[in-house]
Amino acid sequence: MAEFGDDGSQPPLNLEDTTVPSDGAAGKTHCEVSVLNGDCGISENMVGSGSIVPPGSQDGMETSANNTSVGLDGKSEIPRRSSIIKLFLAQPPSMVTASGRDNVTGLVKRKMPLPLSIMSSVPMLKLNDELHSGWTFSPKEKDGSRQRKERKKTVSFSSMPTEKKISSASDCISAMVDGSELKKVRSNSRIYHRYFLLDADMQSLRWEPSKKESEKAKIDVKSIKEVRTGKNTDTFRTNGTYDQISEDCAFSIIFGENYESLDLVANTADVANIWVTGLRYLISYGKHTLNMIESSQNNMRSSWLGELFDEADINSSKQITICAAVQLVKKLNPGLKNVKIELKFKELHKAKDKAGSEVTKEEFIEVFHDLCTRPEIYFLFVQFSSNKEFLDTKDLMIFLEAEQGMAQVSEDISLEVIQKYEPSKEGQLKGWLSLDGFTNYLMSAECHIFDPEQKTVCQDMKQPLSHYYINASHNTYLIEDQFRGPSDVTGYIRALKMGCRSVELDVWDGHDNEPVIYTGHTMTSQIVFRSVIDVINKYAFVASEFPLILCLENHCSLKQQRVMFQHLKKIFGDKIQLDPPKPEDCYLPSPFELKGKILLKGKKLSTNCTASEGEVTDEDEGAEMSQRMSIESAEQQTIAPKKFQLSKDLSDLVTLCKSVEFKDFPTSFQNQKQWELCSFNEVFASRCASDFPGDFVNYNKKFLARVYPSPMRIDSSNMNPQDFWKCGCQIVAMNYQTPGLMMDLNIGWFRQNGNCGYVLRPAIMREQVSYFSANTKDSVPGVSPQLLHIKIISGQNFPKPKGSGAKGDVVDPYVYVEIHGIPADCAEQRTKTVNQNGDNPLFDESFEFQINLPELAMARFVVLDDDYIGDEFIGQYTIPFECLQPGFRHVPLQSLTGEVLPHTLLFVHVAITNRRGGGKPHKRGLSVRKGKRSREYASMRVLLIKAVDDVFKTALLPLREATDLRENMQNAIVSFKELCGLSAVANLKQCILALSPRLTGPESSPILVFNLSDQYPNLEPQGLLPEVLKKVVTTYDMVIQTSKTLLESSEGVYDRILQTQKAAFRAAGRLNLPQNNKISAEDVLKCHVNKRRWCAERSCGKGVSLACTLCFHDNGTNRGRWGRHWLISELEAGKLVRPLQESPVHAVCYAVMGFLSLLLHCKKQLNIKHVLPQTQSCRGEKEEERERKRGAMEFHENLHDLAVKEGLKGRKLHKAVESFTWNITILKGQADLLKHARSEVQENLKQIHYAALTCNLSKGGPTGGSSGSESKSRRSLEAIPEKATAEEELTDEDN
After folding, report:
1. C-alpha 642: how far from its chain's center?
2. What per-residue confidence (pLDDT) applies to 466?
């Protein structure tokens, strides 16, 4: 639809060749091309006050005095049925035309009728797809409003006027007086179409037609108790068409002493907002509503704009030129286009028959009001302003806590926000936030959708290198395709500045004894190796201080390898990581330990090589690509892997990332060292992920895996990194030069953790004893699914897609919301298309997604232009799920190549329910009902190993109790939310705020108060209660009772689950220790002997000595100086001589070292005290971590052997090990869920406390009770039992 004037009329069409200067990218204004009389380049004949006359009609549609079509219901602009039919039948099919804008003027022009071939392929004769789908002409429908099926691409050929912009309460009241057609919902699943309107005296609400008498088909405004938004009454919930009704279009009027509900559905969310806002004003001010609005409306805005106008009026003539007015509006709202501002001033002058080009203060304020007031923000503003035209500190505090998820917001913090964002001096002095200040705040960085905590390094960077995803680039030197594209050092600069931590160097012999970089066997250009190293040295740690991996594909002769070595040593110096891996380490060092280091990944000679060079297998991706191309062209050519000579000097530079060939998973599990790295072709990696999803995940728990694109991607297209991240692959190399969805995912994913290039993988992919399959299409065991609720509210300043010229400046945007993650999480939803509005399109559509593995999920917002030829890309933004901020947020859109589009935003609301594990407890860590169904309990898998199965059976009862505790609490909270008239995304503070009007009597005296003296606040009646409030008290008491039961019982249930987990490990043979916590050194020694003797005998044969048995796996380990003196004293005292007296001296030393390591491990697992002296505390955390990892690997061996003894083999043996890890994962997950439920309850109790104080509903009342109640509240909150260290009771034995 076209742009319209303030009164809702459409500007006239002008088909003359009148040119309107466009907004120059270089900053030129229209003033530079204005005419001599001060005009900004828009001629007077472009502006008029008429309306469009449809073809074939002398007068067209009748018009009223205010230029509004008679076929529309006044200012609400909703067409009446008769008008729709007349308009539709009056338009012959041959006259149906496509709407578009002139490329120069930007105004709507009629195009020639479309060819029948096109007309037959689009739904153009349906009047208007959006309008048609919302209207039915049957007075009664049992299945509710007619619902459109999955939205497909649509094209609108309608030129009907848009609805008038609503930007104040008076606009809402006027629209209600004019009336709207709404759907009346009944509990019997019937839906009636009725026309609702407000009486002119604003005393009653009426509807027609009705079987009732006219005096009965109305509701007195005085009887209205509350107006609820959404489907939050029993009538809606029990209606058979519940799922077909839009949450954003539904609202309910609660009226009468019995709190009856009138449940209504509007055709659009905007119409629903108009009625909700207007009714709430009427409830507050009654017949004096308009007087109140007029007395306070826009005073702060007018004074602020008046001051700005006076500053611009340097001549004190009380008027300024249009050019100056345009620039002033543009300065206040940079996203507006100059041409639109100019046109608005011209329309205003034309309407007033005003000559000249000067703008008065009143005209400036009026144009600003029309152009810069966003209705969607206004509707949100009035919800929290207590029906005032401003937010005070208390209102803002409620908004920040209840909606934005901020914790412990005080009025002082609210005042700081006001001082920062309120533009008017009056608001700053009085502590009031106007609509413009509120808009400034919502568009600020504080309301960015990306969590600011993630803008810096916030994850644990002391985990092994294999526990992180690493931002990686493929053939970094290329800036175009893989076969003929140019090579350039800018590829490295771009990648390193974007946080890339793994770049590729394909090095070949060059001229003048200087190695060069390019893709071999192709026609790509060459760059000198030395210049690349210089650039890498300069930019290596600009974006991140954590280690950089250089993937070196060396194809040089020995002579030029020596040159490579000299360049690397001279330029990088001590940045190169030269320390070899420690034999006792089971895992790679952490990124924290490798800060500022450069790791070389490449081929390495064997340790027994003493010559200056040796032979290794060549790595040549270029040869593989060339081979593929020759096969496709029928030139059968096989390039076999070849050997080449490797310089020992260059080999010695490779320490922690030795390139080795991957054979299969069993071989790797048995032989591969942690510092060895395998590279997987994309196709082979996909096959591994499909055929061996569990093994691939387990492989990546210890080893680094690099995946590079298929050689068939000659065009440098990208693979989907999520396909390999879900398997745990750390290094997924991307073609940075190719933008698109795949690079959007890569850039978006590594945006978290300070964009440092390292992202900690999900815990379930790091723990040694855990079950996860990369191809899971269901919920993940041990991980609670979370529900993501996203409402797409509006957009701002969508540009015309690049390269699009078919529709001129017309933009018909719609939004896709995509979820990327494991297969069970992948989903997408789209909004409707908003026709011909790229400036401020309103979508108002809500979506819900279930996220089964939040730590690996991403949300992507994509805006497209709906075109019948092909939808075109406008912008996108991709964000990890864990970085989403709840509340009302703005999303900055980015172009196809990743640049931020200036002033181009999406306005959304985000809510996350059942947020557990890695989430923030104060940010909507709430529960949501999953529907009426039988309760599901976690179950244990059978291993067919009796001793272990018997242990797991004992877990069934505590698991059932844990589920009951959580579900009972969650169900009670959901029931309370429903009674408060709120949806599942609300928190308890919002519930108390919504309930507060009902708890207050006629003289503002509370009927019910919260007694905050106890840690569990209870409701106390202050007199006789109506039945509705009695139900509230009963439901609230159930919330408190289930919460109290959970806090008091969860500790015991939690401990029983952990004990079952420990017992399962014992039964599986991981640690055959006594059940009590008393253990002697000799018991530990015997246990260690029994476990290690079998391993030693299997490797070295029978009859090994006791000492050699002890030091098996611990051979050569340096346990540090901390135990030496103690060892000597113990040996001299003869305490440890007997077990070791028959062994050689060196074996004794090694055995004692291993013995001490085991004692420390046992002490940690069983909470043994005083087995070792205090000097053990000097041992570093890394040593303990090393022992924990080693113990986890030993466990797998022991369980395997125990299963073999039970007669299991083949598939049953594999299934037994898998079932054990599954059960352990379930136990850990259920224990974590119970722990998080405790945190949830504690957060809920705090919210009740704070809400009661905010609403003055605490015992003692608002006078004197505030400080006293608050201090008592703080004390009672501190008294809430917490078990923050409960998880410490479960040691790392299960990891």
Report:
1. 47
2. 93
Q: Rounded to an integer, what distance in angstroms lies between the CA atom of residue 594 and that of residue 519?
A: 30
Mean of pLDDT values over 937-962: 88
Cα–Cα dist 1252/1272, whole Å:
13
563 within 8 A of 514, measured Cβ to Cβ: yes
Which pLDDT score is estimated for 1255?
Answer: 82
Q: What is the pLDDT of residues 558-567, one digit of tens each?
A: 999 999 999 9
46 phi/psi in degrees, rounded to 5 = -85, -10
**Main-chain phi, psi angles of 999, to 5 degrees:** -90, 0
Helix/strand/coil for 251: strand
CB 327 within 8 A of CB 309: no
**What gap in Å lies between CA 594 and CA 546, rounded to an integer?**
7
Confidence of residue 1085 (pLDDT cuts 50, 70, 90): very low
C-beta of residue 1085 within 8 angstroms of C-beta of residue 1154? no
Over residues 17-32, the mean pLDDT reads 41
Contacts of 1143 (CB under 8 A, 6+ apart): 1105, 1106, 1107, 1108, 1151
- CA contacts within 13 A on the Cβ side of 1175: 11
Give the chain's length: 1295
Angle between helix 322-332 and 338-351 (nearest 10): 130
Per-residue pLDDT reduced to its tens digit, 521-561:
788 889 999 999 999 999 999 999 999 999 999 999 999 99
What is the rounded end-to-end Cα distance, in angstroms, of the chain? 60
Between 917 and 1113, whose confidence is greater? 1113
Q: What is the pLDDT of residue 535?
A: 95
- Give the separation between CA 76 and CA 175, rounded to whole angstroms: 5
CA 75 to chain centre: 39
pLDDT tens by residue, 1180-1237: 545 554 555 554 555 556 777 777 777 887 788 888 888 888 888 889 888 888 988 8
d(CA 575, CA 547): 9
Candidates 49, 77, 70; CA nearest to 162 is 77
CA-to-CA distance for 605 and 1100, rounded, in angstroms?
Answer: 27
User: Phi-psi bin for 945: left (phi > 0), alpha (psi -120 to 50), beta?
Assistant: beta
Residues with Cβ within 8 Å of 600's Cβ and at least 6 positions away in sequence, in order, are: 549, 550, 552, 568, 576, 577, 653, 654, 655, 657
Q: Are 669 and 685 in contact (CB under 8 A)?
A: no
249 alpha carbon, distance to own chain's centre? 25
Predicted confidence at residue 906, as pLDDT, reads 97
For residues 1102 and 960, give the distance between their C-alpha atoms in angstroms, rounded to a whole number. 48
Instruction: Write the secondary structure of 496-511 as one string of H (helix), E (strand) and C (coil).
Output: HHCCCCEEEEEEECCH
pLDDT, tens digit, 9 for 90 and up, residues 636-652? 444 556 788 899 999 99
For residue 1125, name the pLDDT band (cuts at 50, 70, 90). Answer: very low
Helix 393-402, helix 411-421: angle, nearest 10: 100
Q: CB of 1119 within 8 A of CB of 1156?
A: yes
Retrieve residue 368's tokens.
Answer: 């600003």
Query: Does 919 score more than 60 pLDDT?
Result: no
Annotate 44-103 with three-state secondary structure.
HHHCCCCCCCCCCCCCCCCECCCCCECCECHHHCCECHHHHHHHHHHCCHHHCCCEEECC
CB 44 within 8 A of CB 343: no
Measure the CA–CA gap between 764 and 761, rounded to whole angstroms.
Answer: 8
Q: Which two tokens stand for residue 247?
A: 């949450």
How far, in Å, CA of 115 to CA of 47, rounded?
32
Exposure b/e, 1173-1188, CB count within 10 A at least 16 = b:
eeeeeebeeebebbbb
Which residues pair with residue 890 across a beta bridge? 448, 907
Burial class (CB in 10 A: 0-12, 13-18, 19+), 1054: buried
Does the pLDDT value for residue 126 go beyond 70? no
Assess contact for 680 and 708: CB atoms under 8 A.
yes
Output the pLDDT for position 398.
87
